[in-house]
Amino acid sequence: MQTGDVTTLYSDSALLKAKVQAKLEWRYENGNAQYPKGINVTMYDRNQQVSSTLRSNYAKYDKQRDSYFARGNVIVNNVAKGETMKTEELHWDRLKRQIHTDKFVSIQTKTDVVQGNGLISDDGFVHWKILNPTGSFIVEKPQ
């Protein structure tokens, strides 16, 4: 089934945890879905404030695993920490509340840029680890 302008809400104990929005969804009988025009995900903390966002050019959902796969210009922002990660592919495991990739990642923090291959993080992108770091450089503020 094809649907436009879709919003899916995920909650736990009556608290909103995540909102997934897509311009186009292809939903299959087995519950899986594809988002050929990409997704925008908003994650919320326990105070119902936006904690992080994720967007990509394409995504798919695996109902059996309760996980999303995002591909193409994947950008994750941690709102509170002001950190941004960019990669080409990312897996979001909703059951483990974890995101991960084995692809190249670049993370801009407030003070530096860290790059490497592979990443694992909580799904709020608060506690992250690059598995194979390849470089780091300091970002200088304009004077």
UniProtKB/TrEMBL annotation:
This is Lipopolysaccharide export system protein LptC. GO terms for molecular function: lipopolysaccharide transmembrane transporter activity. One of its GO terms (cellular component) is plasma membrane. Coiled coil: none annotated. It comes from the Bacteria.
